[in-house]
Automatic annotation (TrEMBL):
PANTHER family: ALPHA-D-RIBOSE 1-METHYLPHOSPHONATE 5-TRIPHOSPHATE DIPHOSPHATASE (PTHR43135). SUPFAM superfamilies: Composite domain of metallo-dependent hydrolases, Metallo-dependent hydrolases. Keywords: Signal. This is Imidazolonepropionase. It comes from Paenibacillus uliginis N3/975.
């Protein structure tokens, strides 16, 4: 969404306008990833219980051995020989899960805060969903300088019709040529996906999808208002963000409400709220089947709306740089007068939880995403992933399904199931050691003991220290 330099009020409006397009690709993503440690470097996690996020089974008394950035051996602790010089982590009574992914963040130029915050929260991978192109080189440099960082896949700038308030992470397109050129430009900057925005005219959307398909890029982002959800899924939009347009799409008043939304795009939220009242289960199930068939993933970002309208959470102060904290206090004061909008947003949040429950029951793939940016008050990189997990469970997902939304499902979405998403031999060594079983209580994902990022082990104390250093409070 549009995060920077806007009041909370306009933030809410922009969220209602969000949506992403992803086109099918069989190629593995070329993300920004930290250098792999030497193969002689080894981490051994001893006597831990592995949480199998595929089956939900617990595998007790396991020892996990890494070499370089890979998991090379997993076995009963009795059968394992510990390599010379290995970093050994005794972990009796603890639980091991794959590193978490946030599939919708905005790192922008806040990556120096974001990287340590993400790692301290067990987030070992992010999908950035719109940035100013010059930021990409800065992220790369930070990673190449060997600063600890999660894996990053990204979409570059958001493709959108020219806007009066041109924000730096937006890239205007006006014609077939400029649409195709824009896709190629994002590719040139290393983007694996393309993000589009709500106000895109239908013909430009088609050119973007077509060009992206040629370049083997996925298309995600907001659902353009002139395009039906069903049509977008068939055309190859691979991820929907923020449940954008889905209430209208599942209403038996879809035609009428779409017409109104096209005429008054700024009032999109009102039409979505209206649409919820005329939900058509049969129609919805047809759409959900289509999402399954075409691999249209949902990134509901439940936490985003809630953060915008919730009172300032003072406990977050230690994780937020001073100048942002001042902005947050101001934004919350401004926001408080928009009582009706707050109430509507909370209603939309409740409706969204119901929509997620329905989609989950229908087998639609759901991924955790937060829209994390310091541009939204209460939104702290990494921490918000755990809040999103809790909201997914509150919407009716089991703790296992919520965990899958942050591990296995993103791995599938990115066509990287061979190397990510579960704790298995030959996969990348991105793992989180927890004090308690996350399947008992999803809150336990936040009770972190240590993190292995690309084969390097960081204790929680060390990770928290790194956060303190950058936030500098
Ligand atoms: Zn966003």
């Amino acid at each position: 969404m549009h995060a920077h330099k806007r009041s909370s009020f306009s933030l809410v409006l922009s969220i209602t306008l969000v949506g992403a397009l992803f086109i099918h690709s069989n190629h593995s993503f070329a993300a920004i990833e930290s250098k792999q440690p030497d193969e002689s470097r080894s981490v051994v996690i001893r006597d831990i219980t592995i949480v199998n996020v595929k089956t939900g089974e617990l595998e007790p008394n396991q020892t996990v051995v890494t070499s370089g950035n890979q998991i090379v051996e997993i076995d009963d602790s009795n059968n394992i020989e510990i390599p010379d010089g290995a970093t050994v982590i005794p972990a009796t009574g603890k639980y091991l899960i794959p590193g978490l992914w946030d599939m919708h963040v905005h790192l922008m130029d806040d990556f120096k805060y974001a990287f340590p915050l993400l790692l301290a929260n067990g987030v070992t991978g992010v999908r950035d969903m719109a940035t100013e192109l010059k930021n990409i080189a800065d992220w790369k440099k930070e990673v190449e300088d060997n600063k600890p960082a999660p894996r990053i896949t990204y979409s570059g700038s958001t493709l959108i019709q020219p806007q009066p308030d041109a924000l730096p992470h937006l890239y205007p397109v006006t014609s077939e040529k400029s649409a195709r050129d824009a896709v190629r430009l994002m590719k040139k900057h290393g983007a694996e996906s393309i993000k589009v925005y709500s106000f895109l005219p239908r013909h430009l959307y088609k050119y973007i999808i077509d060009e992206a398909r040629k370049l083997n890029m996925k298309v995600g982002g907001h659902l353009p208002i002139p395009v039906r959800a069903e049509e977008a899924s068939r055309m190859g939009k691979r991820s929907f963000e923020h449940l954008d347009g889905l209430f209208i799409a599942t209403s038996h008043e879809e035609d009428k409400l779409l017409k109104l939304a096209n005429k008054n795009p700024d009032e999109h939220l009102n039409f979505e709220l209206e649409a919820f009242k005329t939900y058509d289960a049969q129609k919805a199930n047809k759409l959900f089947k289509l999402f399954k068939k075409y691999g249209t993933y949902q990134v509901p970002t439940l936490i985003t709306y809630l953060q915008v309208v919730s009172p300032l959470d003072k406990e977050l102060a230690p994780y937020v740089p001073e100048h942002y904290w001042a902005d947050w206090e101001k934004a919350k004061k401004e926001m408080s007068v928009y009582k009706e909008l707050i109430q509507k947003s909370l209603q939309n949040h409740e409706n969204s939880k119901k929509m997620i429950k329905r989609m989950n029951e229908a087998g639609v793939p759901i991924m955790t995403g937060t829209d994390a940016t310091f541009g939204i008050p209460n939104h702290v990189y990494g921490k918000s992933v755990h809040e999103e997990l809790r909201l997914l469970v509150a919407s009716g997902l089991t703790p296992l399904e919520a965990l899958q939304a942050a591990t296995l499902t993103p791995a599938k979405f990115m066509d990287r199931e061979q190397e990510l998403g579960t704790i298995e031999e030959d996969k990348l060594a991105d793992m989180v050691i927890l004090h308690d079983n996350p399947l008992d209580q999803i809150e336990n994902t936040e009770r972190i003991y240590g993190v292995v990022m690309n084969g390097t082990y960081y204790g929680k104390g060390e990770l928290d220290e790194a956060v303190k250093t950058v936030i500098n409070k």
